[in-house]
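A quick aside before the break. I want you to see a complete sequence-to-structure record at least once, exactly as it would be stored in a machine-readable document. Don't worry about memorizing anything.
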Amino acid sequence: MMRGSPVYIALTVVLIAVNGADAWCGSCDNAPSRSWSWWFGFGKCNCEGGWSGSCCNSWTVSDWDQKVDDWKKGLSCEAQPENACKKNSNPPATPSVEVSWLYEPDNSKSTERQCTDAGCLWTECFPSNNAASFTDSVSADEMCSHCSGPWAGKCDWHSYSPGFLAFAGPGKHCGFNYPDCPASAGKNCWCEDAAKQDLADSWCNNGSNQDRFCPNAFDHGDGGVQSCSWSGWTIAPQTGNIDNDCASWGAAKSGDPQSKAVMADQTIKEFKKAEPGVAVEGATISGAAAVFLSMGAIFGRRRLKKRKSQGAEGGEGVQLKGTNNAV
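That is the input. The structure line, written in tokens, reads:
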């Protein structure tokens, strides 16, 4: 590019203007608009309340309650979290969370191998994604206090903006979230007889009672205690055959075909005894359901009687499925 050419002169003027212009800003993040004189980043940013500077990137809000209220509404989310703690007043109280167990895990065995070799049961709980569960309903006291207290500088920043086609669901919001509980907190060994039996029974009952064997909270040892949430869990040792495992633990496996058949038979008997609208074992039989069940029972008896007569005519007994007895 030759000096003196129009293009060269124009570029030079632009560079000089940019270097010397206090109002130049490529993006006005926390401003609803830019002044009418905008041109390639020129023109003053008309900052939203609480923001100042040529690019509206200096936040003057110091009250924690006000900060959280803005973030929940999707305001002042840009230029964060760098500005979140530059001015800080009215810090929230440190939340009081206690770690509680129904049974105490054996902390002397820190690995699965050590645990199972000692004849104990090992559990591993899988941390859930706290960022995915972050909502715009968290209060100032519930939000992770990134600016003060034992969680200062340790919280995770979360910012959400709905997509273009998101016609339902939460609106724009942001804020600080507690980090996921460490995976090590979810790995524990259980040697107490009562704990082992309850654990075996729970696992064989479709993995119920996870909250008894996955910690409700974790103490970091520096004053910071946080609640924990888990997306699932597993148990060791396992052979790959749940029936054999449950039998070796002395636990009844829920969902066993025989158990289901017995439960279904008992439920039908109770329904037959029950009047319409009466609750039976946590369920309620309506008038229509009673009629339906009665018709089904009558139809079933007719089919069975027909099969018996056919068997008698053919000179053979009728074998009922699931039993060893001929009718």
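Two observations worth writing down. The longest helix spans residues 287-314. The longest strand covers residues 121-127. We'll return to this after the break.
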